[in-house]
Write a structure and sequence with these properties.
Order of helices and strands: EHHHHHHHHHEHHHHHHHHHHH
Oligomer: single chain
Number of helices: 20
Helix content: 55-70%
Shape: elongated
Distance between the termini: 52 Å
């Protein structure tokens, strides 16, 4: 069974977060690096636990992607801190491979130090450590002098002694600051991450996580991905095509717009027609989709996904391929993508009627843009496909609404926990 390298997956998150908040994500890497050195020196946790904790450290501020404004590392902004911590917890617990125990580290990584005695979670020590390392990183990045005694003045004395002892060993001659300042920490961190192998199932979960990140930015992205996957699956059935690798085919359908993570939000959400320049930028998403998937070792998935805007007459993009050059998998994906787009409400249009949708599909087939045989299957089974997509859409919306309710509930509990704070963290 083919294995995939975790380091390659997490490297992509650096590029993805460049479009959201580069410094936010590099902060996660710096915290992860210091955490790795600390846990290896401590020797208390298993290798698998350390692996997961380091990953959580890299992603611990992922909930900030949901906020209206970029998250600022300012501990006086309690509301922002609770919001991104709670949303990060919801995200990690529901859209990733991590357990609730690991996700709870994210939930409590900004809790006021005097409140940790009020919670009971498996990795409370690590949540406190995340909080400490956040402070250390802010001190390093701002070029301030690190005073461990002052920094840990609000923490249990026994724990303080342990942290100070371990930190003195891993930071001899101020080596952590030097490596962080030079950027050397990043290559050292990824040398470690490149030793960790993950399964294809775990890789696919990371990809779905990336798509969910994009859904943070543009709400309809996830719904469209799911709908295209559903239509693709049913078109194969209606065409009588049996594939042993159907899971791979469906993954290419689900990931076909993954590259939109690199598309500026003002273009994705524009309510008017895109200008020529904006459309050229939008077109780049297929190149990025192929690049991401191929970098992850999913060459076939990437090749199919990046062709979903090719046209039979050669007028499509990115490669301008013609009929015989476009594989059937990409032809089916193209029709599924267009059908889904026509059925859905977008920032620039309302959902089209059945007649208008079918007229557009017929015209595109007659103009030799998309495969007529595949289009005929959509026309013949339109009501069935709409019904199936609506069921999936309702299920997805129900899950989303359940998560929002859970978010509000946990956020209220978090704010209540913080409300009686009597003294500043400083």
């Amino acid at each position: 069974m083919k294995k995939y390298v975790l380091g390659n997956v997490l490297r992509l998150f650096i590029y993805i977060f460049n479009g959201i908040d580069e410094e936010l994500f590099l902060h996660g890497h710096r915290v992860a690096y210091i955490l790795l050195k600390y846990l290896q020196e401590q020797g208390k946790y298993s290798e698998d636990e350390i692996n997961q904790m380091v990953q959580i450290a890299i992603l611990h501020d992922i909930g900030a992607c949901k906020l209206e404004e970029k998250f600022k590392h300012d501990k006086s902004v309690t509301a922002d801190l609770s919001n991104h911590s709670v949303f990060g917890y919801i995200f990690l617990e529901n859209y990733t491979v991590y357990s609730t125990d690991m996700a709870e580290i994210c939930l409590y990584h900004h809790l006021p130090y005097d409140k940790y005695s009020l919670i009971s979670i498996r990795y409370k020590e690590i949540a406190i450590l995340f909080n400490i390392l956040n402070d250390i990183d802010n001190i390093y990045i701002n070029g301030l002098s690190l005073n461990m005694g002052k920094l840990l003045s609000h923490i249990d004395e026994e724990f303080t002694i342990e942290v100070c002892n371990i930190f003195s060993k891993i930071n001899e001659d101020d080596i952590l600051y030097k490596k962080i300042s030079s950027g050397e920490y990043l290559s050292e961190l990824y040398n470690y991450l490149d030793t960790i192998e993950i399964s294809k199932e775990e890789l696919e979960q990371f990809i779905k996580m990336m798509i969910q990140c994009n859904n943070f930015r543009s709400r309809g992205t996830l719904e469209h991905s799911i709908t295209v996957e559903v239509i693709t699956y049913n078109l194969y059935k209606l065409l009588g095509i049996v594939r042993e690798d159907m899971d791979t085919i469906l993954l290419s359908a689900f990931c076909h717009d993954l590259g939109k993570l690199f598309t500026p939000i003002e273009i994705l959400e524009k309510s008017d027609k895109l200008t020529y320049e904006e459309m050229e930028i939008m077109k780049e998403h297929v190149i990025y989709t192929g690049m991401i998937l191929k970098e992850l070792g999913l060459e076939y998935v990437g090749r199919i996904a990046e062709m979903h805007h090719e046209k039979l007459d050669g007028t499509g993009y990115p490669y301008g391929l013609k009929d015989e050059e476009i594989p059937m998998e990409a032809k089916i994906l193209a029709v599924a993508d267009i059908s889904s787009a026509l059925m859905e409400k977008r920032s620039y249009k309302e959902k089209f009627s059945k007649d208008k949708t079918l007229d557009i599909l017929k015209a595109m087939a007659d103009d030799n843009k998309i495969d007529k045989n595949i289009v005929n299957k959509v026309i013949e089974n339109y009501d069935y496909l709409v019904e199936i997509c609506e069921k999936v859409r309702k299920k997805n919306n129900s899950k989303y609404n359940d998560l929002i309710r859970k978010y509000n509930e946990i956020n209220n509990q978090y704010e209540e926990l913080c409300r009686d704070k009597t003294e500043s963290w400083q």
